Amino acid sequence: MVVEKVLEVKDLYISFHTFAGEVKAIRGVSFDLRKGETLAIVGESGSGKSVTTKSIMRLLPEHNSEIKSGQILFEGKDLTKLTDKQMQKIRGKDISMIFQDPMTSLNPTMKIGSQIMEPLIKHQKLSKAAARERAIELLKLVGIPKPEIRVDQYPHQFSGGMRQRVVIAIALACNPKVLIADEPTTALDVTIQAQILELMKDLQRKIDTSIIFITHDLGVVANVADRVAVMYGGKIVEIGTADEIFYNPQHPYTWGLISSMPDMETNDEELYSIPGTPPDLLDPPKGDAFAPRNPYVMKIDLEQEPPFFKVSDTHYAATWLLHPDAPKVEPPEAVKRRRNQFVGVKGGK
Amino acid sequence: MGERKKLLEIRNLKQYFNVGKPNEVRAVDNVSFDIYKGEVLGLVGESGCGKSTTGRTIIRLYDATGGEVLYDGVNVHGKKTKKELKQFNRKMQMIFQDPYASLNPRLKIADVIAEGIDIHGLAKSKEDRMNKVYELLETVGLNREHANRYPHEFSGGQRQRIGIARALAVDPEFIIADEPISALDVSIQAQVVNLMKKLQKEKGLTYLFIAHDLSMVKYISDRIGVMYFGKMVELAPAEELYRNPLHPYTQSLLSAIPVPDPISERTRKRKTYNPADHNYEENEPVEFREVTPGHFVLCSEKEFRKYQSQSK
Amino acid sequence: MINKENVIIKDMFQPAHIDPSKSEKIAKPSLNFWQDAWLRVRKNKGAVTSMIILAIIIIMAFVGPMLTPYDFDHQNTKHNNLPPRIQGLENIHWLPFDGTLTRRNGTEYNAYEARNIDAYYWFGTDSLGRDIFARVWKGTQISLLIAFLAAVIDMIIGVAYGAISGYIGGRVDSVMQRIIEVLVGIPNLIIVVLMILVLKPGIIPIVIALTITGWTSMARVVRAQVLKFKNQEFVLASKTLGASDTSIVFKHMIPNMFGVIIINTMFSIPNAIFFEAFLSFIGLGLQEPFASLGTLVDDGFKSMIAFPYQMIIPSIMIALIMVCFNLVADGLRDALDPKMRD
């Protein structure tokens, strides 16, 4: 099974120069994005998930951020080497982005239609009339009723969910090959969130784009993702298919994440919680960044950073627990229950 | 159920903003429910449904437009002397949503936590005050050394725990938690929820837990109320609400929550809610009725009979 | 994929012990608001340089007049209109301190030698033979005094008015805001001119004239801040704890506004200096023999062609003070503005 890679990030290191010193926000991130798939990146705030994707779009603040090393390969070109002009041609055309807050990602003084037409006229060199046609078509595509009327309205005449639909329409205007969605549903209510997720999945099937979906909500991940990358402390600690991550996680941080969310079956038992707080990337700890919060910590965790261990062809995890010399440990109850449940479902088929 | 003591009775509570103007907002519209001593009542709903306003009106941050809030049989609203107010302030406390906005950035943690102690004169001496602060810090899992630091040095989860310590400083019986975990990371949410549960057991607290994350609410609450556009549409024991949601809005809300389980996510069907589907006739009385013991639904007479036959 | 550079010994897979209490430790040193702000200001070179210059000017405003043997109000008509001459620097020809003047036909002569005076007036003398060096520092002293007084009074009235207006809200707020609008609506200059005419020129009348409308901008800024803080959760939390209104305003609101208040005051000082100078220049300033920078410029202006130094020196002083205060205020705004925090 040879799958075409659309985007490849190789060994990326990014630092921010702040007042207090150098913050090593991304410390060696590598992943690839395949054609037509949805890759979800999960992690808590400060884990580097947004920084990674912003660096792909070159949206990091120029005055204090720096890509220390690494490559971002898109169709064979290294995006980190392009000039700003070349980058502008890619942005919005081949790679586009949806942001968290639909209230601020639209220009309040411009008509919805003009905002959708902008990239069409710029990148696809459409005439004004043709661009307008296409804008109406796009609004219809994202499920906005009466698009002929709506196209001439202003953002304040739309509700939050409708605005996010417009934002998606703008992002999809030029049929991008890669769509980066940075917490697109976090600011929305659950019922609206469900609609937007449904819409995104539906559109992906129609126009065959690849999506990088950033979120901290594991429920959303389970809903949209084909593959999942878990980030912690500026690194990917585990990457695999959605089933592998949810039903057979290997990294103790993933265990913690999954079992700290109650599901409908959790009742009186205490929730599993990851103790402590995320690492300070101003001064990342030696060895495994997760070690201070890891209940299964070993001496080696405090000395050396764990490499990726292969669990299956698609599943890798960076924890010393997978080293052949490591002691066998029992994951938390909730993770074990999931494993059994999964085996039960698969076995029953 | 009759033996359990009612701590709080909310009767026909109304909170309107901009009364009499064209942009009148009925944030809370005729809501009635009870909170029993020692229970956790979850309040869920989408943003703007009035759940936070309900909490804030109960604790008198807003003056109610109508209705009463009875605490131990005494009305919280209406004219009060300073002394009576202070007594309420000690019994009822609140935990806020935004861990960054809920602590005064210019005060040291010790002074943040000790504010209630100072206002109510609960410490005999400076030393006593600091000892109380240290004790509270340890109760919420922080160290003594943190007392001399400023809020901006703490992470979101730590700040939320400081907010809890501040509320606990006056030994309240009842705590309103207004979306206490929605601004926190998943791994930190569990810490805070565990802490709240532990405190409830140790101190016999009663909570009104307001949130939009239903799985957490289900986990922590004994009973759950669902709000929609200023009205309470359904109120039932947590388990019952999940197994047998009656109001179509509750059903759509439950079907919309994503669960961290790819297999069930792939197969789930979503329901949408359209208020017009009720097809209420004009002037048809729509009331909050008890369908099965403890399970209340906002419905018309017709729907009531339908729900009752469904639940049998 | 296993890293080969590091040697892995079996023993390293033993469980390690981590002190759980350590996980909540904060490694960074504790900085309070002012320490943090100072660290930021320090990075701004313009602001730091301006602060040093301002410090020197303020010290000189008090020490300066004592450094010369001449009093600021001592008249010596024999020594009138002498150009600047400084010991040691007089021999460096391209510096303007050699005591030479230019005749109308363009030739230069040494005024001191021509009039046979053996004295050194560092900044020269005016038409009445008073020492400009002493007068400039004395004038700076008075100008700064007026400006500081005006700024402090603006601050006190503005903060109180704004806080009351914003905190009480409702009808009180509406009435108080209308009063401000009326005050702002009347042209400033007219009020000031009328005030001075009624009160007779002097330090106190000028300060009153400056503050009578000057506090409105501070009041507006403070009111906006109070409105913002009123719904902040830490204020709500304090209310639910039963805090009184005064303690909410003084403990929770005003300390959080220090930054804005200081910045506003810092910007109002140079404005006051400029306005005072303007008043003096149109003849409504201090009366002889007292001097402010404004009256000095006004005096010098009368003989600007023949003796340019009489106007240039106080003008440079005004410009320097204004630029420095603005740069410091700018630096403080960057340092204190919470939105700039990362």
TrEMBL record, chain B:
Key words, A-Z: ATP-binding, Nucleotide-binding, Transport
Superkingdom of the source species: Bacteria
Domain ABC transporter: 8-254
Gene Ontology BP terms: peptide transport; transmembrane transport
InterPro entries recorded: AAA+_ATPase, ABC_transp_ATP-bind, ABC_transporter-like_ATP-bd, ABC_transporter-like_CS, Oligopep_ABC_C, P-loop_NTPase
Molecular functions per Gene Ontology: ATP binding; ATP hydrolysis activity
The keyword Glycoprotein is annotated on this UniProt entry: no
Sequence similarity: Belongs to the ABC transporter superfamily.
Name used for this protein in its record: ABC transporter ATP-binding protein
Automatic annotation (TrEMBL), chain C:
Location in or out of the cell: Cell membrane
Pfam families the UniProt entry points to: BPD_transp_1, OppC_N
GO terms for cellular component: plasma membrane
Transmembrane segments: 47-67, 142-167, 179-197, 203-222, 258-286, 306-329
Domain of life: Bacteria
Chain ranges of the ABC transmembrane type-1 domain: 140-329
One BP annotation, GO: peptide transport
Main location: membrane
Membrane topology: Multi-pass membrane protein
Keywords for this protein: Cell membrane, Membrane, Peptide transport, Protein transport, Transmembrane, Transmembrane helix, Transport
Assigned protein family: Belongs to the binding-protein-dependent transport system permease family. OppBC subfamily.
Cross-referenced NCBIfam families: Opp3C (NF045475)
Protein name: ABC transporter permease
Organism: Neobacillus thermocopriae
